[in-house]
């Protein structure tokens, strides 16, 4: 049963029926493990520097980003529980539905964030500060930035860039300007696609769920998507042709078709199948996208091996 919007109380499952195991299950659901694939951007520097020997170290960094990002999701759902009850899908989330007490979620978020930050500094000071910056940006987004048109999408993109930066820090390699530019543009592309999906799905109720959505329009978002997509493809093409890395590994140009196909496939899913609201779900469920990602990764590895 859903809580009454605006009532300020969670009236889902009665407290007497909330066993520790049940609360733990709802807590895991509220942590949004399906969104953890977003943290794969931590591996970007490893892939583009051919540092596979550090796979275990980067995987530890990935795990820590999953922990702190889940803490942010919990905080976000606690703050937005009333608005989420107006959304056809988000109203089913554990906190919005009243299944998970918001007090328990907030306490868990605090513990997870503290543990994640502490462990992050064990992997290196620069990595630790990157994690702190990520949490700070996400909290600022939750509290204020998501209410500002365009700034909301740029803040989301900034989170992806910080993941890529942190991945380079944990490896001890320089951050490539090309990597950061392409990551930023790809994140903007997905962010504008997500806003478009929300606008189409919620229609006239979009402004009630998220005030910023009332200040967007489909023609405007389509223009933003087209501009960012063009910039992304051109930037990646230039990276594979003119960057110092490409001069040492000329076969990288062979990865361009996979990048273009992935972008066009995502654009198709946004406009034709209306699935742009959850990029991580597309990665987990869309078989052509999965195959293309595997092909791209294979070609990148082979390009580095070929020299």
Overall pLDDT metric = 87
Number of strands: 0
Would you list the SSEs in sequence order as H and E?
HHHHHHHHHHHHHHH
Shape: globular
Number of helices: 15
Decide which structural class fits the backbone.
mainly alpha
Rg, rounded, reads 20 Å
How would you characterize this protein structure?
This protein is mainly α and 307 residues long. It is built from 15 helices and no strands. It is globular, with a radius of gyration of 20 Å. α3 packs parallel to α7 and α9 runs antiparallel to α11.
Question: Which features does this protein show?
Answer:
307 residues, 69% helix, disordered N terminus, mainly alpha, single chain
Summary?
The chain has helices at 20-30, 44-48, 55-79, 81-84, 94-97, 102-122, 125-143, 151-171, 177-202, 206-209, 218-242, 244-248, 256-271, 279-285, 287-306. By secondary structure, it is mainly alpha-helical.
């Amino acid at each position: 049963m859903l809580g009454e919007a605006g009532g300020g109380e969670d009236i889902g499952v009665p407290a007497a029926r909330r066993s520790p195991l049940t609360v733990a299950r709802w807590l895991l659901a509220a942590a949004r493990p399906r969104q953890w694939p977003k943290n794969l951007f931590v591996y970007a520097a490893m892939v583009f520097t051919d540092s596979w020997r550090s796979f275990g170290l980067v995987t530890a960094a990935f795990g820590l980003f999953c922990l702190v990002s889940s803490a942010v999701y919990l905080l976000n759902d606690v703050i937005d529980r009333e608005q989420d009850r107006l959304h056809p899908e988000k109203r089913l989330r554990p906190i919005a539905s009243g299944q998970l007490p918001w007090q328990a979620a907030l306490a868990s978020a605090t513990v997870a964030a503290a543990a994640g930050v502490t462990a992050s500094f064990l992997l290196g000071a620069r990595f630790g500060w990157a994690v702190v910056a990520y949490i700070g940006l996400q909290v600022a987004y939750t509290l204020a930035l998501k209410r500002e048109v365009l700034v909301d999408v740029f803040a989301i993109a900034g989170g992806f860039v910080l993941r890529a930066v942190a991945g380079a820090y944990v490896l001890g390699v320089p951050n490539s300007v090309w990597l950061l530019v392409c990551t930023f543009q790809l994140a903007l592309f997905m962010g504008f696609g997500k806003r478009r999906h929300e606008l189409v799905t919620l229609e006239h109720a979009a402004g009630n769920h998220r005030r910023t959505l009332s200040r967007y329009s489909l023609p405007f978002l389509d223009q933003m998507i087209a501009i960012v997509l063009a910039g992304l493809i051109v930037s990646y093409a230039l990276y594979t042709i003119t960057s110092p890395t490409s001069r040492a590994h000329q076969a990288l140009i062979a990865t361009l078709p996979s990048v273009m196909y992935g972008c066009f496939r995502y654009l198709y899913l946004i406009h034709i199948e209306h699935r742009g609201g959850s990029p991580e779900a597309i990665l987990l469920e869309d078989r052509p996208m999965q195959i293309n990602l595997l092909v791209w990764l294979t070609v990148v590895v082979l390009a580095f091996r070929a020299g």
